[in-house]
Write a sequence for this structure.
């Protein structure tokens, strides 16, 4: 019990401190570098002394450090240093000890090898097509997160209470971060384009969007994991609906997703919940569904009512954003439509093998009517086909399919079924968001590879 309290307290301090220091020191590059250097030095020392413990610290960094942009050293993200140092020292140890690498099942190895060939070609193809090297490297790193499966298979063999505590802190911390950011703008303490807005966008890798009536959309990259998290919690509640701890986690997760207010997330949640209807007692499923919808509705309507100073409960916003009948009526939908002509052109140039990683797309901004070029396609599957080609994208889907197939064979517990539903939801979300090849999405599938050996019991209680 004492260890559990220490885990939660220390990780909560880290979660808050790294974001607070990053914001307060945003204009003090030297101090930021000193802090980053101290953290990198500590991690390097830890890798030398205890590689297994260093792996745990790396996992905690992935869970708690958001997009990993809070501190940089010599122009490289803290996360890049952590991954690079661990990878180098781990490989050196492997070579010295001549121990074999841990490998996944055969079908995953074959699929990974085939995809590796297409990925290598897409990297080369990106350079041949004169794409910006930094864009190529950024895209490559996201896919290479899949290689975390090799050390994960080596170091993870049993349920780890430390990770469970980290996931809880991730949920509560992200909820607090979203609510504080929402309150700052809803109460006019902060305004768009102020220092916090630029820090949130450029460092926290998030978005703050005014949806009217003092209701703001708060988005960060790591929030994509809350769709699978909600489905896992939903599934576990179908077994024990009275579990107050799970309900607390679910309420916090719903707050994050509602303030995020991304339409495709709601579609993904609906699809995942429908999948959970299979092999779940109908009475329990309908009961949990009704309660979850009721809680979600209460959160949205009450939040909008308070934010709008009692003027609206948000029905108009629901009509525009959720129904999505006329996407040109909101900026994100209009931009997504404007991107399609150039996306179609790019895919038509090299449909089978793609144009390579680092591909950009050009469109006419629907508001300013000026040409804009960006790397984000806002269409996940189209972006994959444009860069990897039909064959490369198919090889990646085959890899993910093999991972889901292997894991689903043990999906007989509510926890496991929730994880499968979460994977399906990511495929849905990938329609308009790069869920399957965004860092957190890739890490989710790495977890599914390792999970069968460590999830023989329900570890969240």
């Amino acid at each position: 019990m004492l260890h559990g309290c220490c885990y939660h307290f220390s990780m909560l301090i880290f979660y808050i401190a790294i974001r607070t220091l990053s914001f307060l020191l945003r204009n003090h590059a030297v101090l930021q570098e000193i802090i980053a250097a101290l953290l990198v030095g500590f991690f390097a020392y830890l890798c030398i002394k205890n590689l297994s413990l260093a792996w745990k610290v790396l996992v905690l960094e992935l869970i708690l450090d958001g997009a990993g942009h809070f501190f940089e050293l010599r122009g490289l993200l803290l996360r890049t240093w952590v991954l690079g140092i661990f990878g180098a020292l781990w490989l050196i140890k492997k070579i010295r000890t001549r121990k074999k690498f841990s490998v996944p099942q055969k079908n995953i190895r074959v699929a990974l090898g085939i995809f590796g060939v297409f990925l290598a070609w897409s990297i080369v193809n990106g350079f041949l097509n004169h794409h910006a090297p930094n864009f190529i490297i950024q895209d490559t790193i996201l896919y290479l997160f899949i290689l975390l499966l090799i050390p994960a298979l080596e170091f993870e063999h049993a349920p780890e209470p430390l990770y469970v505590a980290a996931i809880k802190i991730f949920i509560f911390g992200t909820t607090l971060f979203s609510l504080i950011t929402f309150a700052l703008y809803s109460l006019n303490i902060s305004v768009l384009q102020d220092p916090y807005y630029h820090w949130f966008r450029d460092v926290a890798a998030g978005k703050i969007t005014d949806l009217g009536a003092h209701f703001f959309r708060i988005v960060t990259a790591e929030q994509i994991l809350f769709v699978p998290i909600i489905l896992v919690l939903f599934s576990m509640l179908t077994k024990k609906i009275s579990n107050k701890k799970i309900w607390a986690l679910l309420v916090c997760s719903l707050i994050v997703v509602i303030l995020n207010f991304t339409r495709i997330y709601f579609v993904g949640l609906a699809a995942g919940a429908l999948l959970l209807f299979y092999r779940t007692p109908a009475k329990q499923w309908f009961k949990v569904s009704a309660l979850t919808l009721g809680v979600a509705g209460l959160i949205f309507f009450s939040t909008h009512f308070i934010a709008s100073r009692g003027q609206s409960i948000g029905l108009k916003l629901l009509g525009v954003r959720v129904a999505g009948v006329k996407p040109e009526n909101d900026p994100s939908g209009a931009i997504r439509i404007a991107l399609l002509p150039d996306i179609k052109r790019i895919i038509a140039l090299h449909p089978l093998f793609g144009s390579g990683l680092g591909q950009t797309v050009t469109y006419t901004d629907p508001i300013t009517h000026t040409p804009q070029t960006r790397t984000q396609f806002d269409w996940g599957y189209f972006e994959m086909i444009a860069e990897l080609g039909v064959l490369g994208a198919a090889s990646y889907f085959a890899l993910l399919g093999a991972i889901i197939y292997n894991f689903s064979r043990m999906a007989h517990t509510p926890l496991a079924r929730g994880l499968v539903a979460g994977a399906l939801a990511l495929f849905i979300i990938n329609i308009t968001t790069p869920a399957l090849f965004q860092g957190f999405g890739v890490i989710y599938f790495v977890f599914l590879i390792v999970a069968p050996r460590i999830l023989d019991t329900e570890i969240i209680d």
